[in-house]
Amino acid sequence: MSSLSFSLGFIDLKGLFRRRGEEGSLYATQKVYSSVAEGNAGELIGGLKAPETVDIPLGIPEQVVEVVKPLWKIWHTDPANHILLAIAIILLAGKIGEEVAKRLGAPGVTGELLSGMFLGNVWLFSGWRFFDFLREMQFLEVLADFGAIVLLLTVGLHTDLRAMLRVGLSSFLVAVGGVFAPAGLGFLVGYFMLPESPLETKLFLAITLCATSVAIKLRVLDELNMLDTTEGRIIIGAAIVDDVITLMLLGVVSGIAISGKVSFVSLGITGGISLAFLFTVGILSLKFNWAFGDFVTRKLPEGLKIAIVAVTCLILAFLAESIGLHTIVGAFGAGLLLQNVKLRDSEGKEHNIDWFIRVAYWILVPILFVRVGAQVEIESFFNLKVVLVGLAITGAAILGKMFCSVCVVERGVNRLAIGIAMIPRLEVTLIIAAIGKELGVLSDALFSSIVVMVVITALVSPPLLKMVLLRQKRKVQERLKLGAR
To answer: Which helix (H) or strand (E) holds 344?
Structure first.
C-alpha cells in the first residue's frame, strides 16, 4: 500500500466509488478494488476522470476508504452540488435577462424567457451541451412546479372577486369573447395544420390561446394613470374573468388528456367538477375570507400563521390535482381565501401575505420561466411546416383577442385599446403550455411555437397599447382646450 500512497500523493479518495442501483456496479467495484489491491495507482487515477463511480463493498480495508473525490468530480458525483450550481446559473441568467428587458421597455418576464431560450440552445452555435441540465434535471422541474404554484397564489391574492362582480356587462362580454374567439381559431389551426394530432392536442392548443396577461395591462395602465378610466376598469375586469374561465377550461381539457378518452358524459362530469370547485372556493372567499383572515391575524401566533398559509395552499393544490384539475387552480383558490390574512414583521407592522412570499416568488418564478424558455428548441424552426404552424398560432392569438373590441357595449369607449390590451400572453399561458408538454399532448415543436407566440405578443402589445391610449389622451386634452375657449 506504500507504493499506492506514494503514487496518489495528496489525493484523498473517500466517497469516490459511489453508484446507486446501476447494473454492473459490483463488477466495476471489483475492478477498481483489484486495481487498488495490486497497487496500480495509474489505472485508479485514470478511472477518476470517468463520469461514473461505484459503491465500495464493505470488505475493502479502511486505508483504501480514506479517500475524497477531487474537485473536478463534484459535478458528476454529488446531486446536491448539481442543484446548487444549476439554481445559481438560472437565477443569474434570469436576473440579467429581466434587467435588460426592463431597460428596453419590455416586461421582465420576457427577458427571463429569452435567457432560457439562449442557454437552452447555446449548443447550436457552440457545440457546448453544458446547459442541457435546464431541460433534463428533474429537480428543476419540481422547483418550476412550485414556482407556478407561488405565481398563481399571488394572482389569487390580488384578484378582487367583488370588483369583478361590479365591472359590468362589458367586462364579462370582453372576457367571454377573449376566451372563445382565440380558442376557436386555435382549434381550427390544429384541425387544418395538424390533422394527424389527437383531439386532446388540438384542445390544449386552443386553451393556451385563451389566457391573457394581467400584469402587462396593469403596468401599462398604471404608467399612463388610466387605471380608473372606463377603458382601464373594463380591461382589468375582463382580464381577471378571462383567466378564471381559462383555468376552468384547463381543468376540463387536462381531464380529457389524462383519461385519454372523450365522451359527453365524462366531459360534463369533469366540467361540473371544475365549475363546482371554483364556485365553492369563490363563494367561500366572498363569504368568509374577511372572517378567516381576521381570525388567523388576531388569534394565531406568527409562526403558526405561516404554517396555515402554506398548508392551505398545498392542500387546495393537492385537492385540485386529485379531482382532475391542475395544482395551479388550487393555488389560485388559496390566494382568494387568504387575501385578508396579515402577518407581522420584526417591528410589529402588519403586511399582506404577498409581502412575505416575495422571496419565494423572486427565486421560484424565475426558475419557472427560465426553464420554460430552455424547453424551446430553436432547431425545430428549421422545418418550414413548424414555422408556418407557429405563424398561424401567433395570428390566431392576435386576431382572437382583437375580437374583444366588438364585445364592448358602452358608447364612447376606445374599442381598439381594449382589443390590443387583451393580446399579450404571459404567465398563465406559459404554465398551461408547460402542463401540456408534461402530459405529452404538446410536442416539442408545438410547445416551442407557443412560447415564441407568448414572447411576440408580450413584446408587441405594450408599445401599441401606449400609442393608442396616448393618442386618446391627446384628443381629450384638445377637446378640453377647445371647450375652454
So the answer is: strand 342-344
